Amino acid sequence: MLIFTARRIAYTIPIMLGVSLVCFALVHISPGDPLVSILPPDASVELQEQLMAIYGFDRSYPEQFFRWLGRALQGDLGNSIATGRPVTSEVMNAVGNTLILAVTATIIGFTLGGLFGFVAGFFRDSWIDKLASTLAVVGVSVPHYWLGMVLVIIFSVELGWFPATGAGPGGSSQWAWDWEHMSHLVLPAVTMSVIPMGIVARTVRALVADILQQEFVTGLRAKGLLDRGVLAHVIKNAAPTALAVMGLQLGYLLGGSILIETVFSWPGTGFLLGQAIFQRDLPLLQGTILVLAMFFVILNLVVDVVQSALDPRLQRG
Amino acid sequence: MRTSLLRTTAAAALAATMTLAGPALAETTLTIGMTAADIPRTSGQPDQGFEGNRFTGIPMYDALTHWDLSSETDPSVVIPGLATEWVVNPEDPTRWTFTLREGVTFHDGSPFNAEAVVWNVEKVLNDAAPHFAPDQVGATTSRMPTLRSASVIDEYTVELVTSQPDAFLPLNMTMLFMASPTHWQALYDAVDASVTDPAERAAAAWTAFASDPSGTGPFMGDLLVPRERFEMVRNPNYWDPARTPTIDRVVLVPLPDANARTAALLSGQVDWIEAPAPDAIPRIVAEGNVIYSNPQPHVWPWQFSFTEDSPWLDRRVRHAANLCVNREELQVLLGGYMGIPQGTVNEGHPWWGNPGFEITYDPDAARALMAEAGFGPDNPLEVTVQTSASGSGQMQPVTMNEYVQQSLSDCFFDVTLDVIEWNTLFTNWRQGALSDGSRGADAINVSFATMDPFFAMVRFVSTQTFPPVSNNWGYFGNDEFDALIAEARTSFDGAERDAALARLHARVVEEAPFLWVANDVGPRAMSPAVGGVVQPKSWFIDIAPMTMAE
Amino acid sequence: MAVAQTDIETLATADKPRGYWSGVGRRFLKDKVAVAAGCVAGGLILMAIFAPWVAPQDPFDGTMIRRLSPIGTEGYPLGADELGRDMLSRLIYGARLSLFMGVTPVLIAFVIGSAIGIAAGYAGGWVNSITMRVLDVFYAFPSVLLAIAISGALGAGILNGLLSLTVVFIPPIARVAESVTTAVRKLEYIEAARASGASAFTIVRAHVLGNVLGPIFVYATSLISVSMILAAGLSFLGLGVSPPNPEWGLMLNTLRNAIYVQPWLAALPGVMIFLTSISFNMLSDGLRSAMDIKQ
């Protein structure tokens, strides 16, 4: 187990290096002036050169990359050009807000998806299966930013039940798990939960159907033991994979929150990413992408290790 | 405001009332939804364009000169701010003496004086100064292009030096906000000792200053949550009693999405939103909110090309175009949220000058002019205009250009629209009509602000501002205009300067290097609880005298 | 937006008997849902191709008088957009760019990704390892993040959007291609062909492609739905297609400002994206089960 974990971690390091290189390259292949957010449109060439030197954009790419990487390893992602604030704290604040949203969405998605999938797999080919399967397909096919808009139309514009935007009074700095704040969470979290719900439902349905086809389970069922024994067996065998899928989904939600956060003005990483893109704030853009990608890599690692701990057969390297 | 914060504060106040039996004081809070995607910089020189100056500049800081924001009907002109008077040196017109207001203190208690002014000039102009702030340069120096340095004469007198005689300096100085040197120094000294590089220490001090700002303005910074909200509280000791606020707390929330702003207003999350989507205005009004608007110093034009073979070289054609657009109908189509221009500035403005050509709707006269110039129904004049699909100040460019296109077809124009991306258009504007990017367009549609004479007129009609120096995209200019500009630049008496600018403006309108189509009216929507609102003819608005019902 | 893929590996482990494809066709036709989805998808494609003949109005022709006419206005059955242009015509024309933006990246990625994956899988050894580790780096980004990061860095525009989506889909397709090829390569008769000295190209062409392309294709069709949503999402953020071109994501973006006036009109473009995405998804599901790939 330890050897497996060590090997898995060792394998992750070059990936992380590659990821940071891609982040850096991505941002630097982009055309346009890196200082566009603070330079006036009629800036003189001298002013531009002066500021380029102050921000270090006049150095060679390899030098910029290694300086950035070196500082990143110490937790310093530089300062935002547009605001002058440290990127690390900006990104970490935003990650916190996105986590609130993504974790809530994952919990909703996993609970509903697991339930639908389980019922569908258990009563395969019944109407309930068809309904659950349809819901699952809808979940993975619906453009979630549009769903968000529709939910806003229904529940904010027409009914006025939930606020349409923001993270509640006081913003994220005063986040609390009270109704006043959670009412802001309802629409974005429900919107976000639809994809994991669909995927978890599909996975669980397949898993459950598979397990039920195993001979001894068929035997148990034939004996009329459609009871706790069978149920426990199914859950026990389906859980590791379902949990792994959920872990990965959390990663996708963290990285893919930009559309939903834009629709709901939720102050998370996606929102930050959008601002970095449109203000062409390179340090912020680089830092946000890097942190999100690293989260995803580490989450993958954790999911792998946990899964193999639950099911040692997977330790094949 | 329905915020938990307020509830707790109100509850605390109530508790205090019961124990101390003092007067019941519920805090009043005004929450504003801005269009900016982030809180504009709070350290003195805001970014985010004029919206930044509007919300984190003017409320928290003062400049040597101010815009008069107290009238809905009169033009907004420059008035004394932290300087009580200013005069140019008659021997050397590049030297100005500003007399400072006495007895003003910064929010941290330190005094405002000549040294503070010099310090604030150096923050953006002297890169050797310890507090030089490179990231504030961009938003500042282009707005005071001729300012070079400042020096102390005595405690309350300061001398400013420009690179050339420039009568526009007092207007420019409205954009240099005075931040507290003492407070900055304290924050600089408090920067962690592990940071040794002076430039890094200075940058860290400015970052700290942004969270804990200190100016002389009617509001004081209280809480900065980056990208989410900024809170200011009233400054009870403000030097101008007329602008000492009664609202206890002002909260700024960035809401770049027009829908999010509308939703926030309708649900009571904010009390005031900037630029509501025109489509949502009926709904906003139906729920009891109030829309404020007033023509802004802004022009939405077509700027003509005067290069060889341009169809606009004939003045009759330029006049015909100006006479052929039914601006009143366009106004109706835009839901009323558009002003009708009579030139770059309108009648009543000190720079108006009563031009000999009246911009109005007279299609018959337009057709007659076109016929004279040799065009007719079977022989239309083909013109191409370059525009964008969106952009700051562009209002609804595609809709409006399509309307103009349709109108001009009645006067024998055959208009082609070249719709390109906003940033590209903006770059082309600087590159000129002959650049590749302009793709042979005969006119360009970029809207502009007209508060300052250089930005309103000079840059479009001077031979010194041909591309790529500035925005004289169509290469319009001649000796007559250069002489008029020089006259205005060197008229240091305010009234004389305005008279010179009026002569310049009259000639601009007569020669018509533009098709003047619209003024933006800057609509904003507020809940009925906000009182004392004066929407001046300006990009700015004064929050200080407003009131807030509980 | 993860699409399960390990199941596909199992498919290629046995060589298919003759008549396999006719069996697939028969099974597919029995699946009513899949056939219906196929018809809808086909209909959308035809609609895109024949848009000029199908659309009742010019999609660019608007007037302020018709601005935001509600659904059911005479002559404008689905209303008119914020510039008074016929919604129905714009939705029909929108199919062109939207489908193009959704399908093209998957097609290109299918070609490039299959080539990379088959080459790596067939070559094996260190070539395989290096190729797959490089792909792993791209795989380490959530797809939405990667697509938005690339097109955000490059700026708005159709080409940049296509490029970013293609880059996103190459690694997963290459992975599937690689694992299927590796599985096929180990089959006895291919080992035999290699022993007999047949050239690598011949073996790939004669034995590998036939076994491998099917499953990769099915996998790729399942990506079309994801690609549609992402492509429209880019335009929705202002990173893809630019106005005044009709494209569903962009239309959704511009009409969002009207949700307080004509909410259901504003939601229409999303219905089209949803319809396309779900029909491709169901079509892909149908193909998958017809080809007996375990779900």
Overall shape of chain C: it is elongated
Main beta sheet of chain C, described?
none
What is the oligomeric state here? heterotrimer
The largest sheet of chain B has its strands arranged as: 8-9-10-1-11-19-12
Number of strands of chain C: 0
Using the CA coordinates, give the radius of gyration of chain C: 22 Å
CA-atom Rg of chain B in angstroms: 25 Å
> How helical, in percent, are the residues of chain C?
over 70%
In CATH, the architecture of chain C is Orthogonal Bundle
Portion of residues in beta strands of chain C equals: under 5%
Run of helices and strands of chain C: HHHHHHHHHHHH
Q: Return the CATH topology of chain C.
A: MetI-like fold
Provide the β-strand percentage band of chain B.
Answer: 15-25%
Briefly note the structural class of the backbone of chain C. Answer: mainly alpha
CATH class assignment of chain C:
Mainly Alpha
- Tell me which protein chains meet in the greatest interface and how many residues each side has: A-C, 57 and 48 residues
Low-pLDDT windows of residues of chain C: 1-15
Descriptive notes:
The complex is a heterotrimer of chains A (317), B (550) and C (295). Chain A has 317 residues and is mainly alpha-helical. Chain A has helices at 2-28, 45-54, 61-73, 87-122, 127-141, 144-158, 179-213, 215-222, 228-255, 258-264, 269-279, 282-310. The longest helix of chain A is centred in the N-terminal third of the chain and has 36 residues, at 87-122. Chain A is globular and about 85 Å long. The termini of chain A are close together. With 550 residues, chain B is α+β, with helices and mostly antiparallel strands. Helices cover 32% and strands 19% of the residues of chain B. Chain B is built from 17 helices and 21 strands. In chain B, the strands form five sheets. Chain B has a seven-stranded mixed sheet. In chain B, strands 13, 14, 15, 16, 17 and 18 form a six-stranded mixed sheet that branches. A four-stranded antiparallel sheet of chain B has the order 4-5-7-6. Chain B is globular, with a radius of gyration of 25 Å. Chain B starts with a helix and ends with a strand. By secondary structure, chain C is mainly alpha-helical. Helices cover 72% and strands 0% of the residues of chain C. Chain C is built from twelve helices and no strands. Chain C has helices spanning 6-11, 20-30, 32-49, 51-54, 87-123, 125-139, 143-154, 158-185, 188-195, 200-236, 248-255, 263-290. Classes of the chains: A mainly alpha (317), B alpha+beta (550), C mainly alpha (295). Chains in contact: A-B, A-C, B-C. The interface between A and C is large, with 57 and 48 residues.
